[in-house]
Amino acid sequence: MSIQSKESVKVAIRATGKIVTMKDVARASGFSPTTVSIALNDAPLARFLPEETKSRIRLTAETLGYRPNPFARSLVNQKSQMIGLMVFDVMDPYCTRIVRGVESRLFESSYVPVFTDAHNDADRFEQYLKMLLDRRVDALIIIANWLALNNKILEMVERRDIPNVLIGSGLSTSSISSISFDNEEGAFLAIQHLYGLGHRKIAFHRGPSKLWDTAARWNGIQSFASLKGLEIDPDLVVSLRDSETSIDSFEGGYRSVRQLLNAGKEFTAFMAFDDLSALGAIRALKESGREVPEDCSVIGFDDIPAASFCTPGLTTIRQPMERMGSEAVDLVFQQIHQTTPSVTRNVNAELVIRQSTAQLPG
Amino acid sequence: MSIQSKESVKVAIRATGKIVTMKDVARASGFSPTTVSIALNDAPLARFLPEETKSRIRLTAETLGYRPNPFARSLVNQKSQMIGLMVFDVMDPYCTRIVRGVESRLFESSYVPVFTDAHNDADRFEQYLKMLLDRRVDALIIIANWLALNNKILEMVERRDIPNVLIGSGLSTSSISSISFDNEEGAFLAIQHLYGLGHRKIAFHRGPSKLWDTAARWNGIQSFASLKGLEIDPDLVVSLRDSETSIDSFEGGYRSVRQLLNAGKEFTAFMAFDDLSALGAIRALKESGREVPEDCSVIGFDDIPAASFCTPGLTTIRQPMERMGSEAVDLVFQQIHQTTPSVTRNVNAELVIRQSTAQLPG
DNA sequence: TCCCGAAGTTCGATTTAAATG
DNA sequence: GCATTTAAATCGAACTTCGGG
Predict the structure, then answer these.
(1) Residue B136 is nearest to which of A70, A104, A279, comparing CB atoms?
(2) Interatomic separation, CA of residue A338 and C1' of nucleotide C10, rounded (Å)
(3) Euclidean distance between CA atoms B111 and A134, whole angstroms
(4) pLDDT of residue A6
(5) Domain locations along chain B
(6) CA A277 / C1′ C14 distance in Å
(7) Residue B170: pLDDT over 80
(8) What are the helix (H) ranges across B65-175?
(9) Residues of chain B found within 8 Å of residue A74, distances taken between Cβ atoms
(10) pLDDT in the model for residue A256
(11) Which CATH entry fits the domain spanning B3-68: 1.10.1670.10, 2.30.130.40, 3.30.465.10, 1.10.260.40?
(12) Residue B187 pLDDT greater than 70, yes or no
């Protein structure tokens, strides 16, 4: 009786916001904390507990509104059930869709992402890395491009020996996993598309030399060119500057096309480094009185959201970013659960045809 | 001597990845764990410790590479140093910039955001809410629009009595803080701009009735109209459907304009509900052979990134989203540190003039 | 010996109350 | 009694070991 009345007090306390602990469940159910723990976690020993006991414990836990304290739990098993998500720039539409992919897959699990954004700055990245490590995240998912190549950072990750995966960088070592996109194939598809529409005088926009992707895409272009005997006019090749951050590439595309136009170069198609620079290119073309795609076809790379929202819709090479995100999660889970060695997984490119490219008249 | 050699063993162990605890620092420095804790945290009692002691402890902690275990710490002081960030849809460009704002301000503190994305789904939102609460986040920052109005959810937040702030919803109660945007002012500025350019036959695009913003913006429009004696032709008012999620509004804008055009309505300007629907409107106009802004001016709302990347650049009402994000952080910190009551803070609208609006000829 | 259940230790810190010279 | 330092309790759960029927 007195126990009963104590319990109703407890329930009243909970309603006022007090936290219910396992001990409370134990008291209320009449079992010891040990038994409660075993029952609620379906621990190995739980097979010896009669169903009656287990269900009674579960019931009281339920009615008391018991929720295990994650800190206590993490303290004993040394797992945070959190994964560190490191992005180089959320404002970059490229990141956004990857984040979505990561989040979606993570939601199905009991893990939760701790979000960090490096603002395209290596120092900030490093600080965040330390923070995440201090917080004992169970794994690291890194969306890196410009700054991924900072060796100091990679070494930090390697030394900690923490499950990890790099998204969107060709790099991978014996202790660093990565999801990489087939840039070469993507560029090949892009130029193939333009070529198929009859274009021969194509202007090319190379990315920043610092960026891994640049070389790979250029290889794709060259392999198609040599396959078809297409000549690439060096005068029609412009490069994005290294200093530019991802979001600046709009400006870069704009400037590059103006530069070509001012120099009086003739071309019927422009293959941009990415979607943002393609949009910049379109702006420059329109300002000079040229219509897209009537006077000049433009093709981008990435398939960011804006590519479909602009008019004309931008033909582009789609990176399956959401899938890259979810596969990254799969990869770190493998490492967490089965201590799998690091691997590299590759995803394919896809051509998305919209309205910015058209058959060359004549 | 033997102590010394033990220590070098310890250091060797650290190099192989073993974790250094406070006890290790105590042993190595020759003080008790208590003293170490006091010294490293600059606890009140630290003022009784001689500088000599403190610095020696700090030094050994440093050389041993000691990092406090966050779980143990959280366990005693019942604080996670994490804040829950709840977004209704990361893919929505509206969210992205707010996330940046939140992250930026948070970086300066020792807090870290746990990221969740509701995918515009109330159930998913609720599940995430429970997860975050179970994880004992110290506060909640919620970017909500469509689904914020779900009372069940708000009640959950209220009952938990956890520091919180809602971004982008007019709502606020005695226990829910919010950052709200002056939609009325924004809409006023927009129509004022069009009016100032000479437009009188303006088509309006109302948002979904479910959405708080819709009514506020409409008020802004009407107050300007009555101020200037401008007549609003009911035939030129179209509404976005409720079922549409944020990202669908492109389609909504497109359909609305086609609808007007098919019905043979005449208008020289179109005031969209948001940027995405404005971009949809532009597509519809161009497909019908109308040029923007020559044949029809278009104004958006929000100032998402794509607004500046498209050609013509979209004139729009800018919501200071990054600031809203960082102010949200300020608000929850106030609640965490000084247990301030809930408040509502308002931020102002700003007109951003680009190329999609022009003086009415004649 | 077989269930079933519990006491006690551990995780790594913070904090109170007390002890040392 | 003062200036320093520390033993011991605590946070909440998991797990190992041990005892009673």
Answers:
(1) A70
(2) 26
(3) 12
(4) 31
(5) 3-68, 80-181+321-348, 183-319
(6) 54
(7) no
(8) 70-77, 93-108, 122-134, 151-160
(9) 71
(10) 96
(11) 1.10.260.40
(12) yes
* Confidence tier at A243 by pLDDT (50, 70, 90): low
Q: Chain A 17-36, CB below 8 Å of chain B: which residues?
A: 17
Looking at per-residue pLDDT, the higher value among B169 and A238 belongs to: A238
Model pLDDT for residues B19-77, shown as the tens digit of each residue: 899 999 999 999 999 999 999 999 989 999 999 999 999 999 999 999 999 999 999 99
Contacts for B298 with CB less than 8 Å, ≥ 6 apart: B269, B270, B272, B278, B281, B282, B285, B292, B314, B315, B356, B357
The fold of B80-181+321-348 is Rossmann fold (3.40.50)
CB contacts, 8 Å: B116 with chain A? 103, 107, 112
Task: Answer whether B91 sits within 8 Å of A116, measured CB to CB.
Answer: no
Backbone angles phi, psi at B149, to 5 degrees: -80, 0
Q: Which residue in A71, A85, A246 has the most chain B C-beta atoms within 10 A of its own C-beta, making it the best mutation to test that interface? A: A71
Residue with token string 């910049």: A280
- The pLDDT confidence band at residue A2, using thresholds 50, 70 and 90, is very low
CA-CA distance, B246 to B269, in Å (whole number)? 23
What pLDDT, on a 0 to 100 scale, did the predictor assign at position A244? 58
CA distances from A300 to A105, A225, A227, A352 (A): 28, 18, 22, 10
Which of chain B's residues have a Cβ under 8 Å away from the Cβ of A311?
279, 282-283, 286, 310
Contact yes or no for B69 and A136 at CB 8 A: yes
CA A8 to C1' D21 (Å) is 33
Write down the pTM of the prediction.
Answer: 0.91
Residues pairing with A164 in the sheet = A140
Could you write out the three-class secondary structure of A147-181?
CCCCHHHHHHHHHHCCCEEEECCCCCECCECEEEE
Around Cβ A262, how many Cβ atoms within 10 Å? 10
A58 band by pLDDT with thresholds 50, 70 and 90: very high
Per-residue pLDDT tens for A119-140? Answer: 988 899 999 999 999 999 999 9
- List the single residue in B with minimal CA-CA distance to A110: B131
Q: Which residues in chain B have Cβ-Cβ distances shorter than 8 Å to A138?
A: none
Report the sign of the C-alpha dihedral through residues B240, B241, B247, B248, in that order: negative
- Distance in Å from D9's C1' to B75's CA comes to 14
Q: Which of A18-27, A66-75, A297-306 has the lowest mean pLDDT?
A: A18-27
pLDDT surpasses 90 at A217: yes
Q: Which residues of A touch B291 (CB under 8 A)?
A: none
User: At CA A69, angle to CA A68 and CA A75, rounded to 5?
Assistant: 120
| Residue of B317, B262, B312 lying closest to B292 (CA atoms) | B312
State residue B311 phi and psi, 5-degree precision: -125, 120
Q: Enter the tokens of residue A239.
A: 């490069």
Residue closest to C2 C1′ by Cα = A48
Task: Confirm or reject contact between A321 and chain B (CB < 8 A).
Answer: no
Q: Do domains B80-181+321-348 and B183-319 have the same CATH topology?
A: yes
Facing B93 at nearest CB: one of A17, A283, A305? A305
Q: What is the pLDDT of residue A146?
A: 62
Average pLDDT of B318-342? 93
Q: State whether residue A157 sits within 8 Å of chain B by CB.
A: no
Instruction: Note the CA–C1' distance, B154 to C16, in angstroms.
Output: 40
Protein-proximal nucleotides of chain D (any atom < 7 Å from a CB):
3-8, 10-17
Q: Which CATH number fits the domain B183-319, given the four candidates 3.40.50.1000, 3.40.640.10, 3.40.50.2300, 3.90.1150.10?
A: 3.40.50.2300
The answer for residues whose C-beta is within 8 angstroms of residue A222's C-beta and 6 or more apart is A232
What digits encode the pLDDT tens for the residues A94-119?
A: 899 999 999 999 999 999 999 999 99
